[in-house]
Amino acid sequence: MRAPLLFHVYVAATTLLIPFAAWTQTRKMRRQGVSVLRAHEKLGHASQPRTGGGKLVWFHAASVGESLSVLALITRMGEMLPRAQFLITSGTPTSAKLVADRLPPRTVHQFAPLDARGPVSRFLQHWRPAAAIFVESELWPQMLRMTRNTGASMALVNARLSSKSRAAWTKKPSLAAYIFDVFDLILTQNDDMAQAMVNMHAPADRVARGINLKSMSAPLPTDPAVLAPTRTAIKGRPVWVAASTHKGEEAIVLEAHRTLLRDYPELLLILVPRHPERSAEIAGLINSGGFSCAVRSKGDHPKAGEAVYLADTLGELGNWYALSDVVFLGGSLLPIGGHNPFEVVQSGAAVISGPHVTNFAETFSDMEKSGVARIAEDGPALAQAVQMMLQDGAHRATALQAARDYVQDKADQLSSIASRLIRMLKLEDDIR
Q1: Is residue 170 over pLDDT 90?
Q2: Which of 60, 231, 237, 425 maximizes the CB count within 10 A of its CB?
Q3: CA dihedral defined by 429, 179, 146, 93, rounded to 10 degrees?
Q4: Cβ neighbours of residue 58 under 8 Å, at least 6 residues apart?
Q5: Radius of gyration of the chain (CA)
Q6: Are 152 and 77 in contact (CB under 8 A)?
Q7: Please, what's the b/e burial string for 249-271 (b: 16 or more CB within 10 A of its CB; e: otherwise)?
């Protein structure tokens, strides 16, 4: 397909701007604690060798959420392709840190190169991917076309574009057709997005509904060195978790906990704020409410009589999920949009959420129908939902079995997506 004029204009502009962009990006990353060696990955200079003799499959995911969402898919493809190597690129230091702690076997992480000829050329010459899989909405024109020109097969998975992005692509039909033509397969999150991709001039015969990868993310890690002493400190007390709470939600959760303590005086609330830097503010709220409190960042463990454990650290959420069958997922009692409920279900717990879950609306709807999730409209409803899980053994057993069934169903779907990608991207030579 012939490149449209707008693509040539874009290439010329990036050629002029790349010196400034390179200086700005590397300087920004150095300020965020990234080493010089790793910051230069933005310029296409690899910081690790390409190892192994098998094909290399490259995943590009811009954000933290996108990066974490593909780890389970990489793991499953790795099981099916035992000789393949995997590369995951992302754009931010935060995503790099979180991914580094959870990398699947035979997988390395690099920062994605800037979308200019020099950085992308260096990147592709070093890594030589046999296949490239792009996630959600990060579509860099030169990166896509130059990757395609190497002969690599390509896919777009979890495709999701905002209404603003859709409108922009629709106004540039020749450029959109030229960019979307690189993909051998485009898997969208739902039917509406599949139709939207076709409307944006993606080749209709290559577009299909897939699944939302964020609804089947990899299990959160746990640390026995953290779990063991915490279990000892709890000593069989009933526990519920309020995770990823935002400003304004902690007060609602604490009032629900106050109600629950009337019937369960030994009940422990593990309160995990979305932003640990708010720890002092939340500790003050807990104390002013008359609750005794232990604080994780101070090295505390909950003692008898302490009603709240403030888990104000990053990267330990899997530990807290492992301590309870009852998890309230924040960002949902106020119009924030909610967080990923699949991480909770994978831990073996049932999910309670507020009503504001637009970020994961389809997942929550599916989970509600399956009996895995329950929506609590406000604080009193939250207390009632937690109490039902604590006091009704049959209800709790049914919810937890539904959670196990849901996880198994998603695992089957993940295997199906992995098989489809392997087939469409012509990776069968490395299959087991």
Answers
A1: no
A2: 60
A3: -90
A4: 86, 87, 88, 89, 127, 129, 131, 132, 133, 152
A5: 23
A6: no
A7: bbbbbbbbbbbbeeebeebbbbb
Q: Residue 255: what are its φ and ψ, rounded to 5°?
A: -70, -40
CA angle 98, 99, 103 (to 5 degrees): 135
3-class state of residue 329 by DSSP? strand
**Average pLDDT value for residue range 342-352:** 92
What b-and-e string marks burial along 334-359, b requiring 16 or more CB atoms within 10 Å of the CB? Answer: bebebbbbbbbbbbbbbbbbbbbbeb
Structure tokens at 298: 């101070």
Q: What are phi and psi of 29, to 5 degrees?
A: -70, -35
CA dihedral 105, 111, 116, 120 (to 10 degrees): -30
Specify the amino acid at residue 395.
Answer: H
Fold of 5-216+416-430: Rossmann fold (3.40.50)
Count of alpha carbons within 13 angstroms of residue 258, beta-carbon side: 14
Mark out the alpha helices in 313-360 (DSSP H runs): 317-321, 342-346
CB atoms within 10 A of CB 41: 25
| 5-216+416-430 shares its CATH topology with 224-391 | yes
What's the pLDDT at 53?
Answer: 76
pLDDT in tens, 357-406: 998 888 899 999 999 999 999 999 999 999 999 999 999 999 999 999 99
d(CA 325, CA 271): 15
What is residue 123's DSSP assignment?
Answer: H
Q: Minimal CA–CA distance to 330: which of 308, 353, 364?
A: 353
Rounded-to-integer distance, Cα 324 and Cα 305, Å: 18
Give the contacts of 31 (CB within 8 A, at least 6 positions apart): none
Q: Where are the domains of the chain?
A: 5-216+416-430, 224-391
With cut-offs at 50, 70 and 90, classify the pLDDT of residue 432. Answer: low
Q: Give me the mean pLDDT over the 23-44 stretch.
A: 94
Q: Which CATH architecture has domain 224-391?
A: 3-Layer(aba) Sandwich (3.40)
Lowest mean pLDDT among 140-144, 208-212, 323-327: 208-212
pTM of the model: 0.80
